[in-house]
């Protein structure tokens, strides 16, 4: 999903409605919310960050998802964009993962809980598609 060194892939060249590629969004968000490649690799491998108390990488995710139009500034999910990013994800999984956002009042945590749920379904459970 997220790798700061992912330049050159077709997905990293697609521009969002904000006219920003995912790689540009990552770079911009990393200026405000420094997040190491190790944290992002851990998210990609396990579905969660190694330290779930550190808000900085959570705010990095929020910034990235906003800049790439996957979520709105209000935290609403842009379903066509999330399905474009994760083609095997279905609307049932998305609805379930939206509920995870209710577990916090902190906006960065809410986005992290959403991403953690999506990544867990895709990487660990394999329930992103019709396997639910």
How do the strands and helices of this protein lay out in sequence?
Layout: H1 10-13, H2 22-32, H3 37-46, H4 55-67, H5 79-85, H6 91-100, H7 107-125
Helix pairs in contact: 2-4, 3-7, 4-7, 6-7
Region (Disordered): 1-21
Organism: Nyssomyia neivai
Protein name: Putative odorant binding protein obp16 obp
Can you characterise this structure?
56% of the residues lie in helices and 0% in strands. It contains seven helices and no strands. The longest helix is centred in the C-terminal third of the chain and has 19 residues, at 107-125. The two termini are 21 Å apart. Pfam families: PBP_GOBP. GO terms for molecular function: odorant binding; toxin activity. It comes from Nyssomyia neivai.
Write a brief structural summary.
This protein is mainly alpha-helical and 132 residues long.
Broad CATH class: Mainly Alpha
Distance separating the two termini: 21 Å
Radius of gyration: 14 Å
Give me the CATH superfamily: Pheromone/general odorant binding protein domain
Q: What is the subunit organization of this protein?
A: single chain
What name does the CATH topology carry?
Answer: Recoverin, domain 1
State the secondary-structure class.
mainly alpha
- Domains, number: 1
What's the rounded overall pLDDT mean? Answer: 83
Q: What is the number of E strands?
A: 0
Strand content: under 5%
Continuous helix count: 7
CATH architecture: Orthogonal Bundle
